Amino acid sequence: MVRVRGLRKSYGQHTVLDGIDLDVPEGGVTVLLGPSGSGKSTLLRCVNHLERPDAGFVEVGGEIVGHRHEGGRLHELRPRAVTRQRARIGMVFQQFNLFPHLTVLDNITEAPVAVRGIPRKQAAATALDLLRRVGLEGRAAAYPRQLSGGQQQRVAIARALAMEPQLMLFDEPTSALDPELVGEVLAVVRDLAVSGMTMIVVTHEIGFAREVADTVVFLDGGRIVESGPPGTVLTAPRHERARAFLSAVL
Ligand code: ADP
Ligand code: MG
């Protein structure tokens, strides 16, 4: 589902991604670990084409992100086409980024109606199903400010799912939450993994990684220094930086 090859990204002199190769099969759950500044968010943003790589490429579902094949050649997509392509990828951020002036229901139906042209009634019915799925049945009419952080993040997940993505990206989805609210959000992410969703999750929740990931990737200084099943990477990391990081967060 995801194929990253030779991905490089710099800001000025600062190399943030220094040749990343990554594969996530359909239904795969990859957890991305690494110290602050190691390039995790930048990698997710390249997968979602919020950043444009300097070299290398990202393929999602057989399409090179930001490009299309035609007549044996690769053409760069126009912004509108990039938006359409990006609609296949759901992203959930640390900050929930809900529209504060819209109800929960309208937050969830906005993009399906505006971007995908789904009839409003149908979008609303789907939204109610999704709210049930994330444990927020009955909160459709609430405004984000009336919800806890954990509830807002679950709305953000429902909103991403409403676009029927092929791939979900999570960037530290529980880092902004009070500790007692972390579990309810991780439970939703776990259910999604069990349902077969392909996903890349940046998190420092090692217990979650151990339980849910099929692959754990450790990023340091813009390079993948460790990658494999959680039992291996989390238990017996070979790389010194990975060992130090794990002993700090465990
Ligand atoms: P992580 O998510 O692992 O903490 P990031 O991908 O956010 O790391 O950032 C990696 C490095 O790239 C950091 O040093 C950060 O300051 C830098 N960086 C990220 N985005 C930008 C940007 N838009 N302009 C300049 N530097 C950036
Ligand atoms: Mg980050």
Which stretches are low in confidence, meaning pLDDT under 50 for 5 or more residues running? none
Q: Gap between N and C termini, in Å? A: 31 Å
Number of strands: 12
For the sheet with most strands, the description reads: 6 strands, mixed
Could you say which small molecules are bound to this protein? adenosine-5'-diphosphate, magnesium ion
- Overall spatial form: globular
Give the strand line-up of the largest sheet.
Answer: 8-9-10-3-11-12
Which percent range fits the helix content? Answer: 25-40%
Elements, N to C (H/E)? EEEHEEEEHEHHHEHEHEEHH
Q: Radius of gyration, rounded?
A: 18 Å
Mean pLDDT: 93
Strand content bin: 25-35%
Domain ABC transporter: 2-246
Organism: Actinacidiphila acididurans
Pfam family, one: ABC_tran
Main location: membrane
